[in-house]
Specification:
single chain
């Protein structure tokens, strides 16, 4: 028979799991909270601080870096375009809730998807804004992507729909009906014929944009899927999740080809190098891993002061790796050596 202490301990453990499970069931889409398992212990909810850099995007020439922060960063606000020559251009936004942003490849416009359901295009030169799409309340946007050629944009809504637009004409092309759960990440394929969506229920979907339908669906992760990328060559994708795994999937037959766990305490981001030979990822472990895809082995590891890495982005020339941290900084690393370069720190 169990002792009184053992019974209390067991009951406490069960109650903890139930309470956390109920909280997460009611709050699966809160952008500032992630559920993770640390060292095999009970799941914990990790919250982003009031100020953190949560989104990065380069212009095609590598001269501009767009950064979206959570909270007001200094007097510039949450959305700033950094010119790597040293200047900073704040982007004025009326809506207090930008969910995701993207910089047009030519570096002339910023796209802003808001939690309040607006998709805006803002000119950097004139600050002129154009509303490309507006959803009825309370539906909002949660993820945004722009194709590498700058022709298309995709925005995921909180009701599961994904809207695909032509940026040349500003018209809506497709509405994809996805899983009614917030999308964490959207990625176009290099030819803009496919779209990847990583979903917070752990699934990852591949969309055929020409036909406007789901091409494949993967039950990829036990916890929220945070990122997904197309891999070069064979039809494969790589996914990352808060279950602390990175996985490679064969798109043709849905088979899992590879799985890695690197003690990230939840993987938050994936970034494919421009030449398609390396992938970088990070999470809550104060580390950035750079993986050699050709040799299937770790290329190097970066120790970072940030408590967590929210997003990684390679410069278009492949020479630098930008890391957005929850300490409100953007750090640049040499892509060959992993040595930190002079970075960009948000003025608090």
């Amino acid at each position: 028979m169990k002792s009184f202490k053992e019974a209390v301990a067991g009951t406490t453990c069960i109650v903890t799991f139930v309470v956390v499970g109920l909280w997460y069931a009611r709050n699966p889409d809160r952008p500032e909270c992630w559920l993770s398992f640390l060292n095999g212990k009970a799941p914990t909810v990790q919250s982003l601080p009031e100020v953190s850099v949560k989104r990065l995007d380069w212009s095609a020439d590598g001269r501009k870096l767009l950064a979206l922060s959570r909270g007001d960063v200094g007097s510039e606000g949450p959305l700033v375009v950094h010119d790597l020559s040293g200047s900073r251009l704040p982007v004025e936004i009326d809506d207090p809730g930008p969910a995701s942003v993207a910089l047009s490849p030519d570096g002339l416009d910023v796209l802003v998807a808001t939690w309040h359901g607006q998709l805006l295009r803002i000119s950097l030169e004139s600050q002129r804004r154009e509303c490309l799409l507006e959803l009825p309340r309370p539906i909002g946007f949660c993820a945004l992507a722009v194709s590498s050629d700058g022709r298309f944009a995709a925005a995921a809504a909180s009701d599961g729909r994904i809207f695909v637009l032509s940026l040349r004409t500003g018209t809506l092309l497709k509405v994809l009906q996805g899983n009614p759960c917030n999308v964490s990440d959207l990625r176009f394929s290099s030819d803009a014929r496919r779209l990847l969506s990583a979903v917070k229920d752990g699934s990852v979907d591949v969309w055929d944009l020409a036909r406007g339908r789901r091409e494949g669906s993967f039950a990829a992760h036990a916890d929220p899927a945070m990122a997904a990328i197309f891999l070069p060559g064979e039809p494969r994708i790589m996914t990352a999740g808060m279950d602390d795994t990175i996985r490679i999937w064969n798109m043709a037959d849905g088979r899992e080809e590879w799985r890695g766990c690197f003690d990230c305490r939840g993987v938050t981001t994936l970034a494919l190098s421009p030449d398609g030979k390396a992938v970088a990822w990070g999470g809550f472990s104060r580390k950035i891993f750079v993986w050699d895809l050709e040799r299937s082995r770790k290329k190097y590891e970066i120790a970072t002061p940030a408590l967590a890495i929210v997003q990684l982005a390679w410069s278009p020339d492949g020479r630098s790796l930008a890391a957005a941290g929850i300490d409100a900084t953007i750090r640049l690393y040499d892509a060959n050596t992993g040595i930190e370069q002079p970075g960009i720190e948000a003025a608090l």
